[in-house]
């Protein structure tokens, strides 16, 4: 794994990457960090190299080689503007993606012959949609393969990334639940979103309207049909 540290990026603001990189991050062994604590933790977990980018003229004091485990190569790039940072990201992710197939140490020794049980995997995802911590790594473990390998095979099998599939399943479940007397808030948490704003934004993106409007439109229709039967 390679750790890529953007020194200038504010803590908690998220890593700014292109759409292609966002998809690649699910299976390419590169971790983007935005503060030293995250860098240190990632390096302690084990990494092949640390790349540090900064617009400053000097490298950050936190990145002193003495603060890192011995044997971890460190590359510091200074005087980097935003465009250069994006190019560096693309370059590193591209190189990592090229070597992913041949990087066998990332996969268990049995990965070459192990068949992924897709029915079991999909069922596990659907049974745990309410878990906001449900992750690619967790599902991969059910098949005894690393997340990089599982993510690549998932995209090959279904034509979409694990993240895209997870979002689709959660939104589909939310739509079904909104046709009942469940509130939007309850539905939000029941499908694994811990934040109403994020849930509303994602629902709007996938359905074309806020969940509250979807419910008011379709719940009234359902209710009126039930009432007429009485």
Describe the structure.
The protein is an alpha/beta fold and 230 residues long. The chain is 51% helix and 8% strand. It contains ten helices and four strands. It has helices at 19-24, 36-45, 82-100, 118-127, 136-141, 147-158, 162-177, 184-190, 196-207, 211-229, and strands at 2-6, 30-33, 49-53, 74-77. Strand 1 (2-6), helix 1 (19-24) and strand 2 form a beta-alpha-beta unit. The protein is globular and about 65 Å long. The termini are far apart.
Task: Summarize the SSE layout with pairings.
Elements (H helix, E strand, L loop, with lengths): L1 E5 L12 H6 L5 E4 L2 H10 L3 E5 L20 E4 L4 H19 L17 H10 L8 H6 L5 H12 L3 H16 L6 H7 L5 H12 L3 H19 L1
Parallel strand pairs: 1-2, 1-3, 3-4
Average the pLDDT over all residues and give the rounded result.
Answer: 75
Distance between the termini: 63 Å
Structural class designation: alpha/beta
Task: Identify the strand order in the major beta sheet.
Answer: 2-1-3-4
Largest sheet: 4 strands, parallel
Q: Helix-strand pattern, N to C?
A: EHEHEEHHHHHHHH
Q: Segments where pLDDT lies below 50 for 5+ residues? A: 10-27, 100-113, 222-230
Q: Radius of gyration over alpha carbons?
A: 22 Å
What's the total number of strands? 4
Percent helix:
40-55%
Strand portion? 5-15%
Output the number of helix runs. 10
In short:
This protein is of the alpha/beta class.
Throw out a few tags for this protein:
single chain, 230 residues, alpha/beta, 4-stranded parallel beta sheet, 10 helices
